[in-house]
Design brief:
By secondary structure, the protein is of the alpha+beta class. The protein is built from eight helices and 24 strands. It has helices spanning 59-73, 153-168, 191-201, 244-255, 258-275, 313-320, 331-341, 393-410; strands at 10-17, 34-38, 41-46, 50-54, 75-78, 88-92, 103-107, 110-115, 118-128, 144-148, 174-185, 206-210, 213-217, 220-225, 228-239, 279-284, 289-292, 296-307, 328-329, 352-357, 362-366, 370-373, 378-388, 414-415. α1 (59-73) runs antiparallel to α6 (313-320) and α2 crosses α8 (393-410).
């Protein structure tokens, strides 16, 4: 873990109501992007007052505990109380317990937010030093040229075939296998432009940028607001049709697909089981419904409940991660297969990304349709597909290609 409770500073936090600042996306700087937005609402952070790093199997719960201590020590003055007001940390966590990629909570110097026709600005300053003020240089993205990763298309098909053998042998019921695309940035592209493209192209998704990790995710891991808990589970997908008739038929095919319904049920049950120890009256959609994105149809279910203990949104994220939607079922077996068949570290792909406030409320998505820019200018995008009995390797490969599309297009990327 990157910090200790004893070393935490005292933060002075002030939120003031402001006039409508216009589009939050127009406020984005060219470097050090911090943003969380959907349908034009959300929060944008500027600068960096404090950075907390975490690693290991308890990284998310440790972050939650440290956040409680930091919030309890802070001095706060609020003119407005809305989700995203007051002390807020932007976070992004690695997928795997053993990942060398650091998990982070970043507290900016200033936050501008907008929701429900209200707008506000929050300033966060260190009043009494503890942890030295941190700052990390972001990489400004440029035009991107992708090359194939170490796992070739043939390699991915072979991995899916191996996973199917394990499923038929009864070793597990589902596993999500991913592949990556690698690229390197040139000199004429702004990361701000990529994030703007994602937000406008996928307005119903959570568009985010934290520590040079950015994307537009359709899947809500967990949202906590004044005791109300909700999640949206996505598992099972199909490409959009070329015309309205073909598109309608595609959605019907998805809803009636036994393979996709089975994959979806694994994911829903994993979320319900993880929330039940912390919530009362946990409910899931009686039947899955379809969500239409520009390139895909998804099967979706909403899960809701009432908080029954003192869990924060990060505590629930720790309990939920990894869901069957991004790992598989049973979880331990699926993770073993992922380690065996994926020849790379997922980093923050498929990990929790979002924000938390002083009360523990917050919004966390599963980091999908995303990419990481490293300090040396290397870029990695990752996409996966759920493998269950009935999966076809060629079809799963095609699904990952569809899921790469948002990031490739946002970066003006090309394969080569």
């Amino acid at each position: 873990m990157g910090s200790t409770v004893d070393a935490l500073p005292v933060l002075k936090v002030t939120t003031r109501r402001i006039d409508d600042p216009g589009s939050l996306l127009s406020l984005l700087p060219t470097r050090e992007l911090l943003i969380w937005t959907r349908r034009g609402e959300g929060i944008v952070g500027f600068g960096e007052t404090l950075r907390l790093n975490f690693s290991g199997p308890n990284r998310i719960s440790e972050a939650s505990n440290l956040w409680r201590e930091l919030a309890a020590k802070s001095r706060t003055e609020l003119e407005l109380e809305e989700p995203g007001c007051g002390l807020v940390g932007f976070g992004s966590f690695s997928f795997a317990d053993e990942s060398p990629t650091p998990s982070v909570l970043i507290i900016p110097n200033r936050i501008v937010g907008g929701r429900n026709s209200l707008a506000w600005m929050t300033t966060i300053e260190i009043e009494t030093p503890g942890v030295p003020e941190g700052r990390a240089d972001s990489v400004e993205a440029q035009r991107l040229h992708f090359k194939k990763s170490g796992l070739s298309e043939d390699g991915y098909r072979a991995a899916v075939s191996t996973a199917l053998e394990k499923i038929r042998n009864g070793e597990l019921e589902k596993v999500v296998l991913a592949r990556d695309l690698l690229g390197r940035i040139d000199e004429d592209f702004s990361l701000r432009s990529a994030v703007d493209s994602l937000a406008h192209g996928y307005p119903d998704c959570w568009t985010f940028a934290v520590d040079d990790f950015f994307g537009s995710s359709p899947e809500t891991l967990v949202q906590v607001r004044e005791g109300a808990v909700s999640a949206r589970v996505l598992a099972g997908s199909i490409a959009r049709g070329a015309d309205s008739s073909a598109d309608t038929q595609a959605s019907v095919n998805l809803v009636t697909s036994t393979k996709d319904q089975d994959e979806h049920e694994f994911a829903v049950q994993s979320v319900v089981a993880a929330l039940q120890p912390h919530c009362s009256a946990v409910r899931a959609s009686e039947t899955p419904f379809t969500i239409r994105l520009p390139n895909l149809w998804h099967l979706a279910s909403d899960v809701s409940g009432e908080l029954a203990d003192n869990s924060s949104s990060l505590d629930l994220a720790a309990a939920l991660h990894p869901t069957a939607a991004v790992a598989g079922s049973p979880t331990a077996s699926a993770l073993d297969v992922i380690r065996e068949l994926e020849p790379f570290d997922r980093g923050r792909y498929a990990g929790p990304v979002g924000w938390i406030d002083a009360s523990g409320d917050g919004e966390w998505a599963i980091a999908l349709r995303c990419a990481q820019i490293d300090a040396d200018g290397a870029v990695r995008a990752i996409a996966g597909a759920g493998i269950v009995e009935g999966s076809v390797p060629e079809n799963e490969l095609a699904e990952t290609s569809l899921k790469f599309r948002p990031i490739v297009e946002a970066l003006g990327g090309v394969f080569g």
